[in-house]
Design goal:
Order of helices and strands: EHEHEHEHEH
Structural class: alpha/beta
Number of helices: 5
CATH class: Alpha Beta
Amino acid sequence: MAAVEGGDRGGQPETRKLARAALDLLGFGARAGSLVTGTHGVRAAAREGGVHLVLLAVDTADGQRGKLVPLLEARRIPYEIVFTRDELGAAIGRPPVSAVGLTHPAMATRVGELLRARLRSAEQQGGS
């Protein structure tokens, strides 16, 4: 899966707009109960087949990432390495968080689309 560094910092307006939209959707998901948070919660949901997309913070500890990524790959659960722990936590109204799993299929699809569009926008503009 693609690593998409950072969130709203720097970058072009379109890239920031797409990042903000993805983070806003995470906030809606948190309020709707459509997320699992933290590496432990995401791992449990992945084992149960209840997660459709996982966002890992770019500053997630190597040990946590090393436990989660192989499970996601084995289960063929899409994931993105994107935003910081602070950005993910702020988006969902929590302290910094290393992993967020989206449990609602349509929300996972939309967040994935926004992140792919953000990556394309950044690539077209020479990165952000």
